[in-house]
Amino acid sequence: MTWKIQGISGELTGQEISIDRDMLVGRHQTADIVLQQAEISRKHAAFHLKDQALWVQDLNSSNGTFVNDVRVENEALLKDGDIVQFSSLKFSVLQPAQAVEIDSDLQIPAAAAEENTSANVQAPAFDAAVQPSEAVAVSETAQAAPLVNSPAQQMNDQGMPALQERHEGVQLSRDGMPQNVAVPKPAPIPEGVDISAVKPESAPTPVEQPVTRVEQEKEQQKNASVGLMSLIVIIILAILAWLFFK
Hints:
This protein is of the alpha+beta class. The chain has helices at residues 110-119, 132-138, 140-144, 151-157, 213-245, and strands at residues 3-7, 16-19, 23-26, 33-34, 45-50, 53-58, 65-67, 70-71, 75-78, 83-86, 89-94, 171-172, 178-179.
């Protein structure tokens, strides 16, 4: 069984990666699935196949491995439709289709086999001298067979004029279809109708992407760094002011 993951964020959106063995995920070139983003560890995570089931294991990565927004502490079992996330890169898990097994012990019933055998028996050829009424009486299969109308007959059934009623200058094909018939031009636009007045379609409403835990932690670290720098600047300014007014 070959599992697949499909990228749903970043530069790998829409790309499918097949997983048919144990595979390493990371930024290092020796990894089976190489992710070049700086937030990915050199050996970030690993996929394992156990009894045709797919597992993901976090290899003590810096930014973590998540399954459905839940951080993986050791390893987690994956199912079809799960969202596995390496730092901020998300992938959708695709389970392989199950093969349909056909039971070889199933046999066709004897009555059905006899019907198929009798249906395959060819009807005897009729003599050319047999009258139509006698031929109909002899062959019941010929009565049951539906008649396929020619294109000309279908046109007559739909109300089209017969071949004799058509204009003599119209050329007909072997099937009775008219040829070299000019296609009528579309009707002109009436005066006073402003085509530009058609309202344009409304622009699609942008959908805000949910903020992941990794992004929240980065934002908190950024705010903490800005607050610390502001505190240091205030202390320096206070010292300078104290020295100046001393």
